[in-house]
Design goal:
By secondary structure, this protein is α+β, with helices and mostly antiparallel strands. Among the domains are: 127 residues, Ku70, Chain: A, Domain 2, CATH 2.40.290.10; 36 residues, no CATH class. It contains seven helices and eleven strands. The strands form three sheets. A seven-stranded mixed beta barrel has the order 1-2-8-11-10-9-7. Strands 3-4 form a two-stranded antiparallel ribbon. The protein is extended, with a radius of gyration of 27 Å. The two termini are 52 Å apart.
């Protein structure tokens, strides 16, 4: 059990509470542990997933007795079940033609797990397109690494910068950007450049023909919808409705589905007229919201 320490002053507490705002006990087990190589300074840290997947998942059950079904491997050529011991990996190079690669060959090419996050170069966060971001992790210091951790955090926060980094996790090489979020460091795992589909590869029609008056009205509509970003007000309505349905069925309540009403095709109107009506509706919604 760690020793009890004296409470820091208000000024020092602002800088040294960075790791304590996110409690590891609430984040489960760390996804990765190692250290950040910050010049000659070594900072032992742990990565904790910053996202908790809340998708509603179902098991497949036998309709007859509601027992859970098992998935089995089946060979359509031999028409028989195949044991996992008799399975090899193959990469399809053309239709129904595979190159077989053994697990030993795959393991021989796997990147060496160094347990070190190598800082590569410092960048302006705003230079990175959000499309590159894949999975965020909280980066928390290990014991006795809080001072060095706080130093790196404050240096990045005060300079409004991030650090592109490289490390190996679960036998795969990752790139990411280490950046401050409030009072904690975050590692944003990123896609490699060749994983993103270029806009040049999209079959886009020529986007022309906009008029200045239409653009002005469209911007006015956007301005009428402007507000601060409040993610806590955004909800997955489908997931919440599905969980409510499950809860009601678990409590024995009978569920009756109402038939959907037929909807008529939307009337095609002039673009400028549609923009004007949209602006009026948006302004009315804002008035109602303020009055409520």
């Amino acid at each position: 059990m760690p020793k009890t320490r004296a409470r820091p002053s208000a000024k020092s507490e602002t800088k040294n509470t960075s790791a304590r705002e996110v409690r590891p006990s609430r984040l489960g087990r760390p996804a990765w542990s190692g250290s950040i190589s910050f010049g000659l300074v070594n900072i032992p840290i742990k990565l904790y997933s910053a996202v908790r997947n809340k998708d509603v998942r179902f098991h497949l059950l036998h309709d007859k007795d509601k027992s859970r079904l098992q998935e089995k491997l089946y060979c359509p050529v031999d028409q028989e079940e195949v044991s996992r011991q008799d399975v090899v990996k193959g990469f399809e190079i053309s239709k129904n033609n595979h190159v077989v690669v053994s697990q030993e060959e795959i393991n021989s090419l796997a990147p060496k797990a160094t347990h070190t996050i190598e800082l590569m170069n410092v960048v302006d966060i705003h230079q990175i397109d959000p499309m590159y971001f894949d999975q965020p992790y909280y980066v928390l210091p290990d014991e006795r690494a809080e001072k060095a951790y706080a130093l790196l955090l404050e240096a990045l926060r005060s300079s409004e910068k991030g650090v592109v980094a490289k490390f190996v996790m679960r036998n795969k090489e990752h790139i990411g950007v280490l950046r401050p979020i409030k009072n904690v460091l975050c590692m944003e795992i990123m896609h490699f450049a060749d994983e993103l589909i270029s806009v040049r590869d999209l079959d886009l029609p020529a986007i022309t023909g906009t008029r200045d008056a239409e653009v002005k009205m469209a911007r006015q509509l956007l301005d009428s919808l402007a507000s601060d970003f409040e993610p806590e007000k955004l909800h997955d309505d489908y997931r919440e409705a599905l969980l409510t349905l499950i809860q009601k069925k678990a409590e024995g309540e009978e569920i009756v589905t109402q038939p959907e009403k037929e909807t008529n095709e939307p009337e095609v109107i002039d673009l400028m007229e549609a923009l004007k009506k949209s602006v009026v509706q948006a302004q009315q919604r804002q008035k109602n919201h303020k009055a409520a």
